[in-house]
Structures are given as C-alpha cells and as structure tokens.
C-alpha cells in the first residue's frame, strides 16, 4: 500500500505548479490516518471495546462452528444444491464451501456487490470482499463489514434433513476483529496465481443455450475462471452445449442443429465435476462425453484441436480458434476452392450462374455456423 502523498512521486518537482496541485489533491498523504489508528488502539477505552468485541466474535463463531460441523456431514452434491438455490458461486475447495455455507446459515447470504454490480461478496478474515472483476484487467476491490443480506434458502430436497428441520434462517451482521495493521500491506492475490491454478477447461469452447438454472453470466464466469471459453456461435470445435434437459426435450431448431452437428449436450452441473486444481483438459473433455444428456455426440476429444487437448496456447480471435492459413488444404472443384476441413470437398455443389462463379470460399465455419 502506498501511504505517501503525490508530492513523493519521483519527478514531482519537475512538474508545473498546476499539475503539482492536481496530483497532490488526487493522491493525499495517508500517513496521518495510520498514526491516528495506532494511538487509538493504545487508548484504555478502546482496549475495553476491543475485548468486548473479541468476546462477541467468539460467541458468534460458536454458532458458525456448529453449522460447519453439520454441513460437513453433507455430500458435495448437497452442498452444491445449497449454492445453486441461493444463486452463489461454488468455491473450488470443500473447506471453503463449508465455511461459506455456515456463514450463510448463521448470518444470511450477502447480496451482489454494490460497486461492480455483479461480483459475489464473500467472507474474508476481517471483512467481506467482492470477488468480481470490474473489467478484464481490474479486480473489484470492494470490501465491507456489513453487506446487504438475504435469508438462506434451503432446497426442497434437503428440507427433510434433521439439520434443516429446526433451522430458521436469520440475518445477523457478523462481527469482525480489527485487522492487524501489518495485514494492511498484504498484497491482493493477483490474477496470475488464479489463472495458473484453475485451467482444467483451458480453451475448451462451450455454447450456452436457453435459460439455465444459474444466470448465464455466472456460468460464463465459472467457465472462464477455469480457463474455458463461452462462444457465441456453434461450430464443430465447440466441445459441448450447456443447457437443461427440458430445453433439450423441446427439439427446437437449435437443438436440431446441435444434433446434426453431433455436439454433446451437458447440464451446468457438469462444472461441479471439474477438479479445479488438478483436473486436466483431457479429463474435462472425457467428463463431457460421460455426462452427455443427448442421445448423440461425436466425442469432443475427436473434434477439439490436439493443441487444446494438450493444454497448449492456441491462436484465437475472440473466443474462436484461428488456424494458420498455411495449414489449410483447399480442393478445387468446378473452378472453386473448397476447404477440405469441411469434409465437403466431395459433396459440395458449387453454385454457378451462367455468367460467373459465385465468389465464395467454403470454409469450416461457413458450413456449420448457425447464428444465435
Ligand atoms: Zn464488486
């Protein structure tokens, strides 16, 4: 953390008076605030307050620990159901799942972040913090000790469990101990460490179709956190379509297209099966095959480019793969070129009118892309 004021920035003295003023106003010296905090904590009444606070925190954590123990008896699928029912993202570690659910049970479920509007407010050691992103490069840094909350909803299928039978959801503000000043310097966990760890879906393309149980935005975020891509168009390199059984049963034009292209269809619960830390791209593709809810499928392992399966970096434009031009095999038919990767070079008809050949290059994407 940078406590110094704008006047401490190298080169400040070389600036013009007007710019100096602007920078000084924008970056105020934070040091006096720190001093004040330290003085207060030496204060006698402050100390008493702190002791009272610790007692209350200890009291609250008894309830929290009680729920934690009870939740520990649930299977992962049951924990997932609780997250889904409450529209919350599912942490990758079981320990974090239990901690977070115990917090929801004891204190209520935090609503979405007020600052970035979509981030999830999650429990940290000394406050709640937002785990959302403001844009592709900036993490949301919102923290609060008293987020807006709602009562936890218990899924119908779990209501009969002894631990939920007597349970009454309440909203209580959780008390936090004051953050030790040394922790104020703790760097925020960087994006890079996140990205290095969570890549079992690296470059795997998913297509989200229809209304899902969780808002699409959240499903997309989960996929992207694990390295995956959500595409806006269906192509043969799409590893799977994520939708619901109901939507699949409706046999819409889109479903018929998916069937014709023999792309596997999975439910969003597929994402719960991914091992965020140790899972490989190949594991994730196999899981698609194993959890296919359609009665068709041509195996994503055969469709997806080999580099993707090996977890290599690939050329992309947006969420689509780009193939380098030199590798394209083109077959000339009736004076027209047909990209051999389409598998159409033997069957394609080239449209000609009497005057001129249609100047269209058939490529993989042209023959299979259906607009959303
Ligand atoms: Zn936020």
UniProtKB/TrEMBL annotation:
GO biological process, alphabetically ordered: double-strand break repair; protein poly-ADP-ribosylation
Reactions catalysed, as given in the entry: NAD(+) + (ADP-D-ribosyl)n-acceptor = nicotinamide + (ADP-D-ribosyl)n+1-acceptor + H(+)
Entry's EC annotation: 2.4.2.30
UniProt keyword list: Coiled coil, Glycosyltransferase, NAD, Transferase
The keyword NAD is annotated on this UniProt entry: yes
Signal peptide extent: none
InterPro entries (UniProt xref): ARTD/PARP, BRCT_dom, PARP1-like_PADR1_N, PARP1-like_PADR1_Zn_ribbon
Pfam families in alphabetical order: BRCT, PADR1_N, Zn_ribbon_PADR1
Protein name: NAD(+) ADP-ribosyltransferase
